[in-house]
Amino acid sequence: MNIGITLVIQGLAFFAVAWLVMKFGWPHIMSAIEERQKKIADGLAAADRGQKDLDDAKAQAAEIVKESRVKAAQVVDQANRRSNALIDEAKGTAAVEADRLVAGARDTIAIDAARARGELRTAVAALVVQGTSQLLGREVNAAAHADLLERLAAQIEQSPASAQ
Fold first, then answer.
1. Mean pLDDT computed over every residue of the chain
2. Which comes out higher in pLDDT, residue 142 or 106?
3. What is the gyration radius of the CA atoms in the chain, in angstroms?
4. 116 and 96 in contact (C-beta within 8 Å)?
């Protein structure tokens, strides 16, 4: 076989195959490439939107955290103020209760002191009557000398008060 004819036949076969591929295969390949490029472009756009949404979400989260910290500080401050108010209220209540207890104790002491003075007055009067009876050598009638005994008891009662 002649090499020239072989080259021409192979050249014609090559161009025929190239024409067939260009006519029937090339549009499908190009549409597949264009479709793939469109999907890639859409994916990149979605990634950009997702990144923007992520940045917005991060900014919102930072703002929410900031607001939460401010609210938490306000709650802590309010709790501190309330606890201070409760402490002050408890101190006031305790002071009032202490004053009431002291006043009650003073009243009790005054009543006990008055009772003790009365008992002491009676005892002193009895001792005076007994001492006078022994000095005079006869019995002194306490009912008959009640006025004298009352004045004596009053003088005895005034004497310790003036000594204080």
1. 87
2. 106
3. 60
4. no
Decide if 20 is inside a domain: no
pTM of the model: 0.43
Mean of pLDDT values over 89-111: 92
Structure confidence at residue 50 (pLDDT): 95
CB 104 within 8 A of CB 128: no
Would you say residue 5 lies in a domain? Answer: no
The DSSP call for residue 138 is: S
* Residues spanned by the domain of 82: 47-163
In the chain, the number of structural domains is 1
Is 4 a domain residue? no
Do 138 and 145 touch, CB atoms closer than 8 A?
no
Burial class (CB in 10 A: 0-12, 13-18, 19+), 149: buried
